[in-house]
Amino acid sequence: MAGATPPGEGDTGVVVETRQKTKRPPLYKVLLLNDDYTPMEFVVHVLERFFGMSHAQAFEVMLTVHKKGVAVVGVFSHEIAETKVGQVMDFARRHQHPLQCTMEKE
Ligand code: TYC
After folding, report:
1. If you take atom 7 of ligand 1, which residue's CA is the nearest one?
2. Adaptor protein ClpS core domain: from which residue to which, for each copy (predicted)?
């Protein structure tokens, strides 16, 4: 049809730009909590095993939790964070330690 309205233009002659918003998926912090009973070596092992830390790094993070009460041990997508929390809680429970691991939106 002659004189058709160009794409992106209504019959007002005003071009409305629609910018595609690419949303990043939300990230979640995985937190490890201190308690009085879980052995330090067990926590170090958890950090090495489930969070890929070196022994030195795991020891340092464990000490931070021990002194401050809590520390962020990683930041992940919802699904990965949920998996890590589940793995830690399950491993701790199987070894009868009261270690607590939680997640919260960043
Ligand atoms: N506070 C514990 C102890 O003295 C060690 C510990 C560290 C426990 C970190 C939990 O997330 C934790 N044996």
Report:
1. 66
2. 23-102
Per-residue pLDDT tens digits for 44-102:
999 999 999 999 999 999 999 999 999 999 999 999 999 999 999 999 999 999 999 99
Residues in the chain, total: 106
| Other Cβ atoms closer than 10 A to 59 | 17
Q: What is the DSSP letter of 15?
A: B
CA angle 103/104/105 to nearest 5° reads: 135
pLDDT the model gives residue 12: 65
**33 Cα–ligand 1 center, Å:** 8
Looking at residue 69, what DSSP letter applies?
S
